[in-house]
């Protein structure tokens, strides 16, 4: 009898262990255990983007708002940073983060213009992985819009195949909102995509999520929608045209044809007969985060900034 009990106990334990071994690992654990094949970058790319400096670009701005063209300025700041894949923030100690450390090309787009007596200040930050093979989507995007009536803050965080969308606003029509959006190429990602992919964008009909600024100004819900991208080229520049198929919005982006593929100008047409236009004034490379003294204000003159 004791022998039979021992046999039954052994079979029960074996069965339990067998079930545990058959259980699938969580998807995120499987992902971290895979050996990632990283696309090699040229020495030219590494020397430029990992030099310890940011690329600072100033632009004249003609902004369409409230049926009129407003004068303003734009600054585009491109810089690589170590980014936490799980927390989606810049890492303080990247050397200790292991596989959670993902190198991103950050773009801070700072847009300022005046409407009548009051002014607008808009900052959009996008964080696009340098390793687009393993991380094909921008990990995080946020936009803050400040003007005298109030301000709004919008953020998208990538989680698997979706973006978690949050918006906080002073205005009732916007409200505080949270939802999920299927992941697709972001309009704000177009410029980082160009910089990371040898000046190239995907051509033809694609799913595109239009900009958070257009969403806010035009009261359009953010979602993937069809757009068509085409290009023309000369000896020195590439011009991309982006047209949304179901919305009256068109963009054009002009890019240097050679490395580092700087953004020379762009236009935005929302179908009201007025064009928003930005034209490059000056581009310099500086470690701006360490330039905080009064003497460093001379760099603003070098960038030809007036605001």
Helix and strand topology:
Blueprint: H1 2-22, H2 27-33, H3 43-49, E1 54-65, E2 68-84, E3 101-115, E4 118-129, E5 140-147, E6 150-159, E7 162-169, E8 177-182, E9 185-186, H4 190-196, E10 204-209, H5 212-218, E11 224-233, E12 237-244, E13 250-256, E14 263-269, E15 275-286, H6 298-302
Parallel strand pairs: 9-10
Antiparallel strand pairs: 1-2, 1-15, 2-3, 3-4, 4-5, 5-6, 6-7, 7-8, 10-11, 11-12, 12-13, 13-14, 14-15
Summarize the structure.
The protein is of the alpha+beta class and 307 residues long.
Question: Tags for this entry?
Answer:
6 helices, 15 strands, globular, disordered N terminus
Question: What level of helicity do the residues show?
Answer: 10-25%
Strands, count: 15
Number of helices: 6
Strand ordering within the main sheet: 8-7-6-5-4-3-2-1-15-14-13-12-11-10-9
Strand content: over 45%
Cα end-to-end separation: 92 Å
Low-confidence stretches: 1-35
C-alpha geometry: globular
Structural class: alpha+beta
Give the topology string: H per helix, E per strand.
Answer: HHHEEEEEEEEEHEHEEEEEH
Give the overall pLDDT as a whole number: 89
Radius of gyration: 24 Å
The major pleated sheet works out as: 15 strands, mixed
């Amino acid at each position: 009898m004791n022998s039979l009990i021992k046999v039954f106990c052994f079979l029960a334990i074996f069965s339990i262990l067998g079930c545990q071994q058959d259980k699938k690992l969580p998807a995120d654990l499987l992902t971290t255990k895979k050996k990632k094949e990283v696309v090699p970058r040229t020495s030219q790319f590494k020397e430029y983007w990992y030099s310890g400096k940011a690329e600072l670009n100033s632009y004249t701005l003609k902004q369409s708002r409230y049926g009129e063209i407003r004068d303003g300025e734009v600054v585009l700041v491109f810089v690589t940073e170590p980014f936490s894949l799980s927390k989606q923030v810049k890492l303080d100690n990247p050397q200790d983060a292991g596989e959670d450390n993902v190198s991103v090309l950050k773009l801070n787009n700072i847009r300022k213009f005046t409407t009548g007596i009051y002014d607008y200040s808009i900052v959009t930050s996008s964080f696009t992985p340098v390793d687009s093979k393993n991380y094909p989507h921008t990990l995080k995007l946020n936009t803050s819009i400040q003007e005298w009536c109030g301000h709004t803050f919008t953020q998208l965080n990538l989680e698997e195949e979706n973006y978690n969308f949050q918006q906080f606003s002073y205005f009732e029509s916007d409200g505080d909102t949270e939802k999920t959006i299927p992941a697709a190429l972001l309009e704000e990602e177009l410029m980082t995509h160009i910089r990371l992919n040898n000046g190239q964008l995907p051509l033809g009909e694609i799913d595109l999520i239009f900009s958070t600024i257009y969403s806010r100004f035009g009261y359009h819900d953010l979602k993937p929608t069809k757009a068509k991208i085409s290009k023309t080229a000369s000896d020195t520049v590439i011009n991309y045209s982006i047209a949304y198929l179901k919305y009256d919005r068109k963009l054009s982006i002009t890019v240097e044809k050679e490395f580092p593929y700087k953004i020379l100008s762009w236009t935005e047409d929302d179908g009201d007969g007025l064009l928003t236009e930005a034209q490059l004034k000056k581009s310099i490379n500086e470690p701006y985060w360490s330039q905080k003294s009064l003497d460093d204000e001379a760099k603003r003159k070098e960038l030809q900034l007036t605001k």
